[in-house]
Specification:
25% helix; 14 strands; 26% strand; two-stranded antiparallel ribbon; globular; disordered N terminus; alpha/beta; 318 residues; Spore Coat Polysaccharide Biosynthesis Protein SpsA, Chain A; twelve-stranded mixed beta sheet
Amino acid sequence: MRFFVVLHSFVHHLSYIMQPALLVLAAGMGSRYGSLKQIDGLGPSGETIIDYSIYDAIRAGFGKVVMVIRKSIETDFQEVFFKKYSGKIEISYVLQEIENVPEGAFYTPERIKPWGTAHAVLMAADVIKEPFAVINGDDFYGADAYVSMAKYLSAIQDNASTAYSMVGYPVGNTLSDYGTVSRGICQLGLHQLLTDVVERTSIQRLGTQIIYKDEQDQARPIPGDAVVSMNFWGFTPSFFPRLKDLFVDFLKESGHLPKSEFYIPFAVNKLLKSGQASVKVLNTSAEWFGVTYKEDRPLVVNRFKELAETGKYPTPLF
């Protein structure tokens, strides 16, 4: 069984020199949203959030896009995305499925879905050979965030480098009014280097406080200006073999659990603690927003309308 499965590629231009790639995590099924939010038309001319992400990436100097999707939504993505980018940027996709694991790896037969964001990143190992950024398909990160990341990645001259990066946002600006969210809570050291990142679930605002639930289901406070990961990461191809090793270890320890998750913050933290990598937290003036729940949709639609009316984005984008 091949570990990485590459199903199809739409190549529209072939020449780029060390331009970074953009890896879009879009395999989620939108259970809390109620539909495939990755293909929901939220912009004034029916643009998706991914359309805005690709538009910002092209302007910032990214050279290609790779999407991670599921087989069950493959046709939808082909129809919504790939034709519109002809002649604009190289674009391809890979599939994240539960059977895409290392040879001989064990997991419980009760498992019904893949293992989350870090597992999704592994699916692109065969098609990404340059420094690359990772984003969520349902998050709007803002143009300046792509400029900051592209500048950092374009300066990397060695694909073996383990000097990774991340765009950070204050947690108070990343919450939903309609339910809890999960975020990677970060600790920073000297020179904006990440020292610790822990995925926290059930984060919400209660009155004037922001809280999360710890492993014992106890409410714990989070400062409103605490830096969180919104899964806007910068890596080199050196990340893939390290991530594969971590995934093998993860399955040995947690493969028997039907709902275990292999998140990017978990993998990054392992590398930080073992001294195998560093992560520079990049500053940005960009505004983040996204859709977690269906109730978030009107706010996002209005925000895109405002961005078009103020001339920050054309409509249609392409």
